[in-house]
Amino acid sequence: MDEGLPACEVPLVSDAEIMAVCEGYGNDPHRMLDILRDLQDRFRCISPQILTVVAKQTGSTRVAVEGVATFYSFLSLTPKGRVTIRLCDDIVDRFSGLAEVTEAFETELGIKLGHTSRDGAFSLDYTPCIGLCDQAPAAMINDIVVTNLTVEKVRGIMAALKSGKSPEALISERFGELKPHERATRMVDNNIRHAGPVLLGPVPEDAGLRKALDLAPADIVDAVEASGLRGCGGAGFVTGRKWRFAAQEPAERRFIFCNADEGEPGTFKDRVLLTERPHLLIEGMTIAAKAVGAKEGVLYLRGEYVYLRELLQSVIEERRERGLLGPAILGVEGFDFDLRIQMGAGAYICGEEGALISSCEGLPGEPKTRPPFPVTKGYLGFPTVVNNVETFCNVARILDRGAEWFHALGAGGSHGTKLFSVSGDCLNPGVYELAYGMTMRDFLSLVGGEEAAAVQVGGPSGTMIARDSFHRRLSFDDLTTGGAITIFGPERNILEIVEYYISFFVHESCGYCTPCRVGNVFLQRAIGKFRKGLANPKDIEYLKDLSATIIETSRCGLGTTSPRPILETMENFPLVYSALAKPSKDRIRATFDIQAAIDDARKLAKRRSYIFDRDFGQ
After folding, report:
1. 71 vs 38, 347, 508, CA distance in Å?
2. Residue 2 within a domain
3. Where does the pLDDT of residue 615 fall: very low under 50, low under 70, confident under 90, or very high at 90 and above?
């Protein structure tokens, strides 16, 4: 099988072509990610020539440009194929036949995973969760998404691509004639299983924005705070309070940012809102702008949702034409607000608001030191409100129906409804809009997951519960979640799931701080020992101590939550660990895997050991 190009040929590019792309973004170093994404799409890589010319054009150092180019997984310093196939490597995809699908692509392409064909036609890679766990296995083929993959489907896809058809033709021979919404829904099934009264049921057009016109900014903030709305991305901070801080901060400029970078494995609810409620989202952002006095906004769209960019851009342009964006919105002098789309490029950490802001500033997506917080000193040093898609959509409905209406929904300290992304071992994966307060047992009955042995609530950084906890309730007061519910049947290996989640955090760490960068690797190795049967009781204490250190000393939310898959399963599935942590004979700890240690030596020497290879000579 072809291992691909050892050093792919860099496409011939003139300096003038590179300069023209930079000029299209005003040679603005804060638009560095846009510039590099554009160049990657055009020329299939960020070559040394591109690095040099971009640095000169934007007044940056070459090192700074390379720092951005190497941070994001969708950018590459070596050429990728004209068609790049990215297979989703989420745990749900693995359990749904990813290995067979991968093998089929390798066979059809004649290359191994991680390589590019010698003619530069195709690249084949894995990528973390692409927000399609409800229709796994899934993949991105350039900017096109394909779902529910099987070996036969792969053969059909590759036959079409090899015959010269474009990835777009995989969706429709009339792809160019389809409207943006049709293109999106031809690729991805929204899988709306239950529509609630707030977001997925009937929604009047711009009713919330029109009512906001008659309110003073402070009154809008009061209404949002009185509704009890809390951030829907997982942290649960009171939305109105966040807006109040931004409004009160003296500043010449303020910004509204929408975080549409839902990269947590198992989460895809915002994908549905971006597809079915884009007007509601931008309406909510516009209301927020009036509330805090912002005139500029950014919709940060994760790179994996690039197939939705055209739809969202068309909605923005339509709203400008109708006077719902831009100067003097709906004829109100002084009410000016507009926004742009900022595409991500494959970095989970950019879902953290500080890292997201860094990315928009043209920097690697590294979290910022806090304080100061973004509401006082965010994008370019100005007050910046960052909320996610679901939160902004809720705002528009609150202004329409009233704070009391929203506050009355839910239970206890959890108000309104919640969108749940459901995937895994259940009959009806998809998106459910439900009031807060439902027990997990009732929830599983609704989605067809009664046979569940374990449920991951809130993605890898959340909580994994066993059957003895299915009486608990989905709410801020009990089982908190940004929306992801992943169901695992009794045949699944808990430690395999944990090892995947820890590996995900290792891959997605920005690498800024040592506890996260190094500590998670140690956690990964320790879990590997358990899976190989090499652990002993002291390794359980080691996992607890190391996890505590990572949580206490990491800089951002990734490090403070990354040990949770281990800590939660140790607490809720203790027998999984104790059954595998056994003292070795003769009181010797099994902490050293001699077979793994000498494996590299076997390969280098091209010979085996008659001492350590038990089957030597057989």
Report:
1. 16, 8, 10
2. no
3. very low
